[in-house]
Amino acid sequence: MNRTWRFKEIIAIIVSLIFFVTVYIVIYLIMPVSSENKWKEVEIPQGASYSRGIDILANEGFIKNKPVFHLIGRLARTDRTMKAGYYNLNTVMTPLEIFDRLRKGMIVEFTITIPEGSNLDDIRLKLKEFGLVNDDSWQLTKDSSFLASLNITAPSIEGYIFPDSYNFAKGTDPKYIFAIMVQRMREKFNEPLMKRANQIGMTENEVLTLASIIEKEAVYDSERPLISAVYHNRLKKNMRLQADPTVLYGVRYRWGRILYSDLMRVTPYNTYVINGLPPGPIASPGIKSIQAALNPDKAGYLFFVSMNNGRHYFSYTGKEHVKAVALYQRNGNTKEVNGEKEYD
């Protein structure tokens, strides 16, 4: 009897302990960490273990009972790793809410949208706005060693960043950011398109360079192959491309309308003074411009001029082009700026 009674007494004690521990854990998990309403971003570094992450959160005041977090982590089978990044936490959150954010890896992320035709200046402003790059890390965009690691044979990463929306966690290594955006470009500029480039004797850099010019010239998709045809035809005839967007790209201190003096300004990108394509792209082309660069229309056009409505007039001969320019550009479409004539 005594043994039976002692056994039941031990069982009762164990059950009571389990009950009280369970009640304690439940109460702990549903009670706010603090009454002070304060948000704070806590960084979990890359490669940190679950245990290391718990220590960091405890030091920041978001975890009062580390053993409980280790226990629920083990029960939920999330105790092996913790997603790296910045966690935005509030001291009025309950430990259960904090654990749920850790379990789901709810780190601070930013959505960056790069429109078609963006240049590096545009992209830099977007990335700096969210603190994803600074002046030092931005130098990677022109670093020859870094460019070589991405198999980029151009003066900069210009044009190799595909225009799209990206999600990046706060604190992401800028090298990873640039690599992801270049990888997205190559996912779009895929093997069939690269095969087409080889067929027409163009390198990746040449295709992207031509596509970037088309991107800056075209407003309507239907005109992209026609604009491409003009440039392909000029290249075949060893004619200078005379693409206005390349002029503005070379004049980095000013954007807007082109002055006549700009046309003769010697820069590596000014296709009014250099032969062939510039050394690299002048913007980020979209897939439609890349496809147009690879598949020009079969028309024999050599010239085009803006009709000031988003569309262009295409001509076969210089004489026809001069008439079109007189019609669409010189009839009230020029003005004097600092003693020089401006034109679109």
List the helices and strands and how they pair.
Layout: H1 2-30, E1 39-44, H2 50-59, H3 66-75, E2 85-90, H4 95-104, E3 109-113, H5 120-129, H6 135-138, H7 144-149, E4 165-169, H8 174-188, H9 191-199, H10 204-217, H11 224-236, H12 244-250, E5 258-259, H13 260-263, H14 287-294, E6 303-306, E7 312-315, H15 318-328, E8 335-337, E9 340-343
Antiparallel strand pairs: 1-2, 3-4, 5-9, 6-7, 8-9
**C-alpha termini separation:** 105 Å
What is the topology, as strand order, of the major beta sheet?
Answer: 5-9-8
How many structural domains in the coordinates? 3
Number of helices: 15
Radius of gyration: 31 Å
Structural class: mainly alpha
What's the helical proportion of residues?
40-55%
| Beta-strand fraction estimate | 5-15%
Based on DSSP secondary structure assignment, what is the total number of beta strands? 9
Which parts are unreliable, with pLDDT below 50 for 5 consecutive residues or more? 332-344
What structural keywords apply?
single chain; 344 residues; mainly alpha; Dna Ligase, domain 1; 3 domains; two-stranded antiparallel ribbon; 15 helices; 9 strands; disordered C terminus
